[in-house]
């Protein structure tokens, strides 16, 4: 268990979801380094052993759940989906972040993984709402959010500091059926 997430795989599809583990460090860091051009200014994945260890510590804190989306056939890490700042009570909401790794993008694998995380969030964690904040020019991320049923709710100027700069974001959300 990492961040309260069972590391056993999901049962169907081309991908499996599992929690990140310390043994994933080498493959994860290599994938993050190889994905710098793909990620561009949109995201900074943990690309050193120290950054990966810090990521594991953050995701093990209460209110966070991390998922690796992995290919079922090879076990290769396709990408990451994180649920953070989970608030229960009357709100039952969380922020959602995600990114694919180079070589696995535009194959529908992240869509499959993200849809599985959304189902898990609503059915298992009993959340009511998930919010993803996406930079307006990130067409691939916006397309993925739309494909998974997220709807644009608004625009937040200078919302998150990424790559040392405050960047505008669109707020995309989905609520439980």
Write the CATH fold name. Answer: Aminopeptidase
Q: How many strand units?
A: 7
Instruction: Write down the oligomeric state.
Output: single chain
Tally of separate domains: 1
Which parts are unreliable, with pLDDT below 50 for 5 consecutive residues or more?
Answer: 1-10
Q: What fraction of residues sit in β-strands? A: 25-35%
Q: Summarize the biggest pleated sheet.
A: 7 strands, mixed
What percent of the residues sit in helical stretches (DSSP H or I)?
25-40%
User: Ends: how far apart?
Assistant: 28 Å
Fourth CATH level, the homologous superfamily: Gcn5-related N-acetyltransferase (GNAT)
Taken from the alpha-carbon principal axes, the silhouette is globular
Spatial arrangement of strands, main beta sheet: 1-2-3-4-5-7-6
Helix and strand sequence: EHHHEEEHEHEE
The helix-and-strand class reads alpha+beta
Mean pLDDT: 93
CATH class: Alpha Beta
